[in-house]
Amino acid sequence: MANLGKKFKEAGEIFDTVDLDIPDREEAMRANEGKPALSYILTFPRALRGFTRVCEYGEEKYAKYNYLKPAPVTQHIDCVMRHLQSVANSHDYDQESACLHVDALVWNVLRLSETIHQIRDRALSCEWDDRPEVNVTRLDDDK
Fold first, then answer.
1. Structural domain boundaries in the chain
2. What SS3 class is residue 2?
3. Can you give the pTM of this predicted structure?
C-alpha cells in the first residue's frame, strides 16, 4: 500500500495531508480515450528550454505575449525559412539573441501552426492568410 500522507508547504504554513492506504498498483480511472496525449512534449526538455529562451528574448525585445497579436502567414513563413536556412548552413547561434536558430525555428513553426489553426477554426480572419494560391500540376499529368 502507498502511504500518501505527506507534508507539504503552502503559503508559509505546514499542512498535513490525510493518510490514505491505496493499493500500489491501482491506477486512478481517467476518461482520456480520444484526447490528445500532450505529455509527449515533456520528452523534449532541452528543446523546451531553448523555446523558453526564445520566448524570453521576444518579451525583452518586444513585449510579453506580443506574438498573440495577429500577423500575416507569410511573415511567419519568412521567419521559419530564415532560421531553417541558418540551421542548414551550420550557423547554430543567432547573433542578436544568442539563442540557437533551431530553437527560434521551433518557436516560429509553432506560431505559424497556431496562426493557421486559428484561421481554419475561424478564430482569426482569413485576411491574415496571405499565401499566394499556386496551382501545381504533376509532371505525369501532361500525358
1. 68-130
2. strand
3. 0.73
